[in-house]
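request received
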Amino acid sequence: MEPADIDQDLAALVSPHLAATGGPITALRQVAARYGHINKKQIEQVAWQFNLSQAEVKGVASFYDDLFVTPQGRHRVRVCTAEACQSVGAGAVLAACEDAAGLTGEGTTADGNITLQPVACLGLCACGPAAMIDGKLLGRVTETAIRDAIAALGE
Amino acid sequence: MSMSMKTYLPLDSAAVALGADDVAAAIAVEDASIELVRTGSRGMVWLEPMLEVASNAGRIGFGPLTPADVPGVLAAIGSGSTHPLALGLVEGIDYLARQDRKIFARCGVNDPLDFDAWQNAGGGQGLTAARAMSPAEVVDEIKASGLRGRGGAGFPAGIKWATVIDTPGEQRYVVCNADEGDAGTFSDRMIMEGDPFCLIEGMVIAGYATGATVGHVYLRSEYPIAAQVFDAALVAARDRGLLGEHFDLQLFVGAGSYVCGEETALLESLEGKRGQIRAKPPLPAIEGLFGCPTLIHNAISLASAPWILAEGASAHQGRGVGRSVGTMPFQLAGNIRFGGLVEVPLGITLRELINDFGGGTRSGRPLRAVQIAGPLGAYLPDSMLDLAMDYEALAEYGYGIGHGGVIVFDDTVDLANQARYAFAFCAVESCGKCTPCRVGAVRGVETMDRLIAADGDDSRRPHRQLLQDLCEVMVDGSLCAMGGMTPVPVMSAMKHFPEDFS
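response:
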């Protein structure tokens, strides 16, 4: 069933991936990147374009961490909390992030500025604790350094 | 003085995380005439960012550098005087000189996208050797080499290759598993950032041997620099004819899911679905991607093929111990002084890796525990560090080498917390397909919480019994290693560190 109103912008974003291997995942990643997160109407339309059921597409979107189905902050702070970083104080770095952003664990600040996301492994295991702020990699992160970096993200 | 100065600085993620891009910018500001080549990393992470300067005697290293060090270092090079951060000849640094670099021989040396430099350094010789043989002979060579899967299971590679070639099918695939999710591991990332053509060459050899015409590399999204370098390498490889007519490759970037490192979940994901595992059999070699015969290997397994073919099966077979042969890139991680990548023959002991290469803990406190093989791997006490990294020796204890990760913890670690984390990680990352894993992980977290909150050994004993039972169910009843091996860190921690659970 064709969705009531086709969004041409979205259709153009999705169509290059229709025949690609792993296409629905890549398409949904593009949707999340363009619109911030994937909403119900977009799932409906992606499903229609791929000739999949909405349940299948929703299932994919909700399975993967990168395919955001809820609104995200303007900035993303990823902190590694896996074993190698735990051994050099990742717990304290995460606590500093939570304190600096006013969050407890994974979440987005009320003003929509920062999403804090504890992750398992950035592959920087010989120079932990590791973090990634908006794509910028940080190694041997100290509590002070991460507080300063979060403060620099402003409001 | 600087007119002919040629320098090298890594673009590797770890080097960048430690400020390599800022150092590069500082060099450009100081003297724009200096030629700066961005390379992969040599894997001596504690020295990053490490600048290398070409000289008649070889490359001279300086590190670890901050942008503020750059003027002084360049002045010292210019005047031929010494500098506190000078490391001497890079290839003479003990950590590197004592390794047996085969897979990583070229990593960190040249621009990873410089095809000519790659060829001049021996790149492509494995493929040339392979093409001089029949596909069946290549498979025999891999069998004779004794190569075993480097992703974790240690399955004999040659048997996989033979199964794919022996299975009738219109279309066959080679799939590279670079969904390197194990904490404490980064060798897939390093090879893709530092010598992507090596992995491509390995996949082309695998395609030739198995009759596959299409390959896919499944890379985790947490590695943006690896994705960028590898994507560009694919373009260069097509330009130069390494890829194209007979075999072509695509890069697929995952979307954040640990379980997609399990081979059948990875195939589901590559088909655009949820990363839920498939029951085996059928094996992927028989029914893999889109139901076709598929050779699926970890990146390091595939990147081993070029040197095996170039130097012959016996060169691989002749390294290591017993049935654990060839070289393995171990990754020294966590609380370790000299963290990085150490490629040596299998059979090395943990103590040699951690003390002789790693220099002990970074904190300087006593070592208390070592986790080998990632989040599904065992926690070992100091008294077991003389264990050899040998599949059979570890299997006697029910442990494995995994992907070669070695995570060091000092005496501040609490193994009850680590056991709790193992369950918590499984609870988050379980694909949900089978009950022992999906429910067991959640029950495990709850039980650990009760054990930790309980006071005294008597009140903790029933929780320990429950953990034993739960782990038994997960081991026996889970469909894949996620649920089946989450008990390994838990039970090894309880066994070797009982004081943290009593």
